[in-house]
Specification:
mainly alpha
């Protein structure tokens, strides 16, 4: 990207971002800008190094880059630190951050691709921090923030669905798998799976505008994923919908639950025959079994330290022919994370997700917004886990950043709602104690009905 293009994009981004922040306020403006930067504008504005003649495939670029979303995340995190508004929940990423810093300094070779991978994972950690802060604002029952988030998501999914429709209309039958504005078809589906975690509870919001935007964004997410013929992502979306429907308590929103299930199924009916054709011609998923075996051998050989982030292909291609031949890492998110970071590092990176699950599980059968948020969290994580079992790009930028932002928002939202419930219970208990407090001079509890007649009688 030329210097002139970078400057033009920078000026345009700063102008649009400033106008958005001014019009919507700091938190809502940040939500809109960050969602846009992670989905429709994940640009590298500046590369801090020279790209190799034959760049390797990894979870990040071959050299460190300054990205649109990286600037937003770094700025928002710095503001939270300077203003002392960092939530305790945000500290779930601190062990992983410290591990990465120690790894870059002492454990792994400090090559450009490794530094790029480390910066990427640090940005992922920052997305969790920012997401928790946004979730806390959502938990204050402020309809404007939820509305801004829903509008941002419906705008993003609408643009992405339009790009898929345009590609299909222009290229016609030449389109085997639609990819829209991205270089790979699977990116669209991963965005759809991840954003359903927010859209499902937003589609049940008390605010009418938020509900409508949430439902439209869900429908657009299904529509843009179907033409990609991405088996893992389509399955992931179906897992999300089925888990969400099963977890619903009682008959609440039964019609919407049925409608969502029918909508999800109907979106994929037109491409069913093509999906079945893909299964018949390539049931094993290409070289996935051989790549998985190579990844497991690498993990067994170095389970504690790993190759370092973004270095799996570089390190393993020297002794695994399938990696050298294909140029791809192991197609399993969990094995790849453990192989690159070591098992301890992978578990530390997974800690925020476990914290979000810990907040969600006790409220899965709870009615109301807190239950909706918990079910959205659990359903989305079930869907993205199914995607990660046969793919590696969940760890890739900017998908990993989007995932941790959404999980952070859901965790912060759930935590804030729980705090409100605890505060209301404490206030109710205090009112109950006041109502039964003994009157001075009497040995038994009385009601609050202490009128003039009672006072006269006790003089």
């Amino acid at each position: 990207m030329s210097t002139e293009v970078v400057l033009a994009l920078g000026v345009l981004g700063v102008t649009l971002g400033g106008l958005t922040l001014f019009h919507l306020g700091r938190v809502r403006g940040l939500v809109v800008c960050l969602v846009a930067a992670l989905t429709i504008a994940p640009f590298a504005l500046l590369r801090l190094g020279t790209l190799p003649a034959v760049p390797t495939v990894g979870i990040a670029a071959p050299v460190p880059s300054v990205t649109t979303y990286g600037i937003l995340v770094a700025g928002a995190t710095a503001v939270l630190l300077l203003e002392g508004k960092l939530q305790r929940l945000s500290l779930a990423v601190l062990p992983a951050v410290l591990y990465l810093l120690v790894g870059v300094v002492a454990l792994w070779p400090r090559t450009p691709e490794l530094v790029s991978g480390a910066v990427h994972l640090l940005t992922v950690a920052g997305c969790w921090v920012v997401g928790v802060a946004v979730g806390r604002v959502l938990g204050r029952a402020d309809p404007r923030t939820g509305r801004a988030l829903a509008y941002a998501l419906v705008a993003v999914t609408g643009l992405l669905a339009a790009s898929v429709a345009f590609q299909v209309l222009v290229e016609g039958s030449a389109v085997v798998r639609a990819s829209g504005i991205f270089g790979h078809p699977a990116t669209l589906g991963k965005i759809a799976v991840i954003t359903t975690g927010l859209l499902l509870p937003l589609s049940l919001s008390p605010d009418r505008s938020t509900r409508r935007a949430g439902v439209w964004a869900l429908a657009l997410g299904f529509a843009m994923t179907a033409p990609t013929l991405s088996r893992a992502n389509i399955l992931g979306l179906l897992v999300v919908v089925v888990v969400w429907a099963v977890l619903q308590p009682g008959v609440r929103h039964r019609n919407r639950r049925v409608l969502l299930t029918v909508l999800a199924g109907a979106a994929f009916v037109p491409v069913l025959s093509r999906l079945l054709g893909r299964f018949q011609t390539d049931s094993a998923g290409g070289d996935r079994p051989e790549l998985l075996a190579a990844g497991l051998r690498q993990l067994a050989a170095d389970p504690w330290i790993g190759t370092g982030p973004n270095r799996f292909v570089t390190e393993v291609s020297g002794h695994e022919w399938i990696v050298a031949q294909t140029g791809y890492p192991v197609h399993n998110t969990f094995v790849l994370a453990a192989a690159e970071l070591g098992v301890p590092g992978a578990l530390l990176m997974l800690l925020p997700v476990l914290v979000a699950l810990r907040l969600a599980v006790p409220a899965l059968r709870t009615r109301g917004t807190r239950g909706d948020v918990a079910r959205g969290t659990f359903a989305m994580l079930a869907g993205i886990a199914s995607v990660g079992l046969t793919g590696w790009a969940v760890l890739q930028q900017p998908i990993a950043e989007l995932l941790f932002l959404v999980v952070g928002v859901l965790a912060g939202w759930s935590s804030a709602l729980r705090r409100e419930e605890v505060a209301e219970e404490a206030a109710g208990a205090a009112r109950g104690r006041d109502a039964t407090e003994p009157v001075a001079g009497e040995g038994r509890a009385t009601s609050l009905r202490v009128g003039p007649a009672r006072r006269t009688a006790t003089r």
